[in-house]
Known about the structure:
This protein is mainly α. It has 2 domains: 3-60, no CATH class; 65-114, no CATH class. Helix content is 58%, strand content 0%. The chain has helices spanning 3-11, 33-42, 47-60, 65-78, 83-93, 106-114. Helix 2 packs across helix 3 (47-60). Mean pLDDT is 80; it is low at 1-12 and 18-25.
Amino acid sequence: MTACVRSHLVSTPSAPRANPDRPGGPRPAPAHEDLLEHLSRTTALGPSEAARVVADVLAYFSESPEEFVRRRHGELQARGLTNDRIFERVALELPQRRFRAAEFSSRQLRRIVYG
């Protein structure tokens, strides 16, 4: 892992950790096998470490905006920030985050495509 990536991970707000024992928890899908092989080949990570990193990244990006806001509020409140400061900070963080896609019905998908 490069120093740049490592420093970003350290300075980035924490996210839920992947729990491979929890049913339904984020896991690297077979579709990510090429990514796991790439990480093992191009980094010092072994296959199991690469799988854990990918699972952690998937968990990081699996939060909904509401889950993120609740989690960050709790983290910042634990650091002693007031609600005014917390909401100001979270409002600045939200646009910089990626969130899981909403679930769409077939009808909703058709409406996206055909209007």
